[in-house]
Design a protein that fits this description.
With about 375 residues, the chain is α/β, with parallel strands linked by helices. It contains twelve helices and 16 strands. The protein folds into two domains: about 130 residues, ATPase, nucleotide binding domain (Nucleotidyltransferase, domain 5); about 210 residues, ATPase, nucleotide binding domain (Nucleotidyltransferase, domain 5), CATH 3.30.420.40. The strands form four sheets. Strands 9-10-8-7-6-15-16 form a seven-stranded mixed beta sheet, with helices on both faces. The protein has a five-stranded mixed beta sheet with strand order 3-2-1-4-5, with helices on both faces. A two-stranded antiparallel ribbon has the order 11-12.
Amino acid sequence: MGYKILGITLSHNSSVCVLDDGEIIFFLEEDRLSRNKHDSLPLSLILQISTNFTINEIHLSGLSGFYNDFYYSKSLKLFLKKLFPKVPINTTLINHHHLSHSLISFYNSGFNKALSVVIDGGGDWNEVNKKYNFEGYETESIQVLEYPLNIQEVYKSYITKGLDKQINNIKFSPLVSLTKVYEAITNYLGWSWNEAGKTMGLSSYGKPNSTIPNLYINGKGNSKVLNNNSLKGKLNLLPISNEWHRDSSKITNFEKDLAYKVQQESQQAVGDLIEKGLTEIGLKQVCCSGGYFLNCVANYYLIKRFPNIEFYFEPISSDAGTSIGIAKLAWYQKTQDKTIRPQKSLYYGPQYSKEQLLEGIQKYV
């Protein structure tokens, strides 16, 4: 029987991961069971794990703001202690949200050493706020990672309330962050912040439009057209009708061109950030994670822009993947294992027999 680590992500896209001697043997998002999209509390999964696996230690990941809610954290701890009465529960790594993103892409990439790029809507805030005395959170990170767990910080960017300065390789800015610009356009077009894939799809129908102002300046939101509204981007343009959501004949070129604009400018800004890291470090392997890299159009752009770079784009780049990242972090911290385990499959969920599959199919025949 191997040593099993349970990683749990607490945030939207909550999930669990079970590592057995460093190998992923189970991973699933809570909403696959609860049918509640982006479910933030993986109770069904934790219960399933308790009945199917013998766990040696538990590590919590996600967004620290979720866990630091007193009633949320207290009820979750009681739940875990009831199901796993003798298993240690580690919460010290929960503030390492971007690191969890970074490590899932690195350890799944198969690279021995790589430049790791994380671009996210929002990551850690509690620990960094205490350290630097500001209100805000991490949005972009670049690191060099090497087996078993060597980490070199190259660049970090934080979106803040008011603070605007650079400390060595750390940038604090009150301007709208790279991903929040994309979310702002998505909101303006009538979708929720986590439906950016619809904006990406719409961008294919647009074209350059000189009447739309630049959305980015130096990798941040253009302050003339975007304001930092409660650390979330808001577009300063007159509202538009969203009737075309129900009747496609009512869509105008403006909506298409706006989606095209944010897609083109954001992927260029991402490419500029990666080029900065490549210039400073000189590596030829790059692994990418965080919500922005669910944007496959941008990923193809990067491959074309950097033909001599070997990219790995983490397919579980949403926050769901951080349960894998935190479990891997715990394993390599504990063992200093140098075994490279490239991701070969995304089929980590429960397995079903032929009889169970046929029984499920019969319900819909």
